[in-house]
């Protein structure tokens, strides 16, 4: 669907006769949990009640309460005409013509050029998805699943076939994670029903996780990346201190839940090994049961039913449990290193109300393009383009990248590209740097 940001909601910022006029100061006062306004294309909307019914969850839309949400609105909704009918009843007025286009001293020139760039990308068809690409991608996952069973049928259950089977299944699980990520963001097929069903199938039946759990957490991450209190991905539950602000805050308050000056070392023990086998699995089950997500629970059950039906004949019940635990252990390492190399070493701070481009570029970086890097990371080596345009299909990131880089160079916004190895080492290096900041603040009297 071609989007036209300047006229997404109709009017394109033009004054509507008879509507009530507001200032940014008035809008910014409505940013409480039970009182939330936001601005889209200079139109003011009261979303206080709508947040409870918002399909993406109340947090992702609430994170923009009291400010301009135009770029986030366009970024998350591939079909603006469909979403428009939900916004109309919430319209309470518009910004006074004397008010600037942007709030909180956001860079209006950057915002204008970014929206113009998006229009160019839309005209060039870079938001059009190739269903064939994703069908072939899904096909290669199914081939991997069958290949793992063929290995055991032909070579038995010795150490080498078992290890090979585990590696194949880990690869399938990791790649299924990248594919469900695509279905969660995109309308791969014109009928949203099929896209929704395939997302449930991939994340539920092929991975054993909840689509609703993933959507509500991940969209918050995209809305406000690397912002404390808004991005769940930087909520480390006191296990780590990250960035350059949080370590000092913890140190000044004499908070020491763990010896953070050694976090770059214990990261290898509690980070990659535990995030999927323990933390994600516990979150999935708890949320599905507490929110009564019975459909997601059924898909989750179908994954384990299929897995144990396939592997109990080879390994028995306890052997199959050991196999799935080992696969989760390996997959967790893959997931953590790929997802954190773009974010943990970047700026992590409290809300600063930056414009969309500056906010996303301060929280993300790219990894060099290669066939292996594209496949290994599910094209998340183009994290910058993915964060700027979440509904752009991954097979078009490389086409958009030169234009995004040119825009960043024009406005002096850093467009960072690293090698894969540098991305990995920067995770550990940034944890050590943050730990040292904490220790200095903690010991300071």
Can you give a write-up of this model?
Its main location: membrane. It is found in: Membrane. Pfam families: Cyt-b5, FA_desaturase. It is a multi-pass membrane protein. With 445 residues, the chain is mostly helical. The chain contains 18 helices and seven strands. The chain has helices spanning 24-28, 58-62, 70-76, 80-87, 108-123, 131-155, 159-185, 192-206, 211-223, 246-252, 263-270, 275-290, 294-340, 356-363, 371-377, 383-388, 397-411, 420-443; strands at 21-22, 31-32, 35-40, 43-46, 91-95, 366-367, 417-418. The strands form two sheets. The protein has a five-stranded mixed β-sheet with strand order 1-5-4-3-2. A two-stranded parallel sheet has the order 6-7. A hairpin with a 2-residue loop joins strand 3 (35-40) and strand 4. Helix 7 (159-185) packs antiparallel against helix 8 (192-206) and helix 11 packs across helix 18. The longest helix has 47 residues, at 294-340. The N and C termini lie far apart (59 Å).
Q: The CATH topology of the domain at 5-104, please?
A: Flavocytochrome B2, Chain A, domain 1
**Shape assignment:** globular
Span between termini: 59 Å
Strand numbers in spatial order across the main sheet: 1-5-4-3-2
Regions with little confidence, pLDDT below 50 for 5+ residues: 1-15
Helix content class: 55-70%
Q: What portion of residues belong to β-strands?
A: 5-15%
Largest sheet: 5 strands, mixed
- Tell me the series of helices and strands, N- to C-terminal: EHEEEHHHEHHHHHHHHHHEHHHEH
């Amino acid at each position: 669907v071609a989007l036209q940001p300047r006229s997404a909601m109709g009017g394109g910022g033009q004054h509507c006769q008879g509507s009530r006029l507001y200032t940014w100061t008035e809008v910014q006062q409505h940013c409480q949990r039970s009182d939330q306004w936001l601005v889209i294309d200079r139109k003011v909307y009261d979303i206080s009640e709508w947040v409870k019914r918002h399909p993406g969850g109340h947090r992702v839309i609430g994170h923009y309460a009291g400010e301009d949400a135009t770029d986030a609105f366009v970024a998350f909704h591939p079909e603006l005409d469909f979403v428009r009918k939900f916004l109309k009843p919430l319209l309470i007025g518009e910004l006074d013509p004397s008010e600037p286009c942007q709030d909180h001293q956001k860079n209006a020139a950057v915002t204008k050029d970014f929206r113009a760039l998006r229009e160019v990308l839309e005209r060039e068809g870079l938001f059009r998805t190739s269903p064939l690409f994703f069908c072939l991608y899904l096909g290669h996952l199914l081939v991997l699943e069958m290949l793992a069973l063929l290995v055991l049928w032909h070579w038995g259950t010795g150490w080498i076939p078992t290890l090979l089977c585990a590696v194949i299944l880990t690869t399938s699980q990791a790649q299924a994670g990248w594919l469900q990520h695509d279905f969660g963001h995109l309308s791969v097929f014109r009928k949203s029903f099929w896209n929704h069903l395939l997302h449930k199938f991939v994340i539920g039946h092929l991975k054993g996780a909840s689509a609703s759990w993933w959507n509500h957490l991940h969209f918050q991450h995209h809305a406000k990346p690397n912002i404390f209190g808004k991005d769940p991905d930087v909520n480390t539950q006191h296990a780590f201190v990250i960035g350059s602000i949080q370590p000092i805050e913890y140190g000044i308050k004499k908070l020491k839940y763990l010896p953070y000056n050694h976090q770059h070392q214990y990261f290898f023990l509690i980070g990659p090994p535990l995030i999927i086998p323990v933390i994600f699995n516990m979150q999935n089950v708890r949320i599905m049961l507490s929110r009564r997500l019975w459909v997601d629970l059924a898909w989750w059950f179908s994954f384990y039913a299929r897995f144990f039906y396939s592997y109990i004949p080879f390994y028995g019940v306890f052997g199959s449990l050991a196999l799935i635990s080992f696969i989760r252990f390996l997959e967790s390492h893959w997931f953590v290193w790929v997802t954190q190399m773009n974010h943990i070493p970047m700026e992590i701070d409290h809300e600063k109300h930056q414009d969309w481009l500056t906010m996303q570029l301060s929280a993300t970086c790219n990894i060099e393009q290669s066939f292996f890097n594209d496949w290994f990371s599910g094209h998340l080596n183009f994290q910058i383009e993915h964060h700027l345009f979440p509904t752009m299909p991954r097979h078009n990131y490389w086409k958009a990248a030169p234009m995004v880089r040119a825009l960043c160079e024009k406005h002096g916004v850093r467009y960072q590209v690293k090698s894969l190895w540098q991305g990995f080492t920067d995770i550990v290096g940034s944890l050590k740097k943050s730990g040292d900041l904490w220790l200095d603040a903690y010991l300071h009297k």
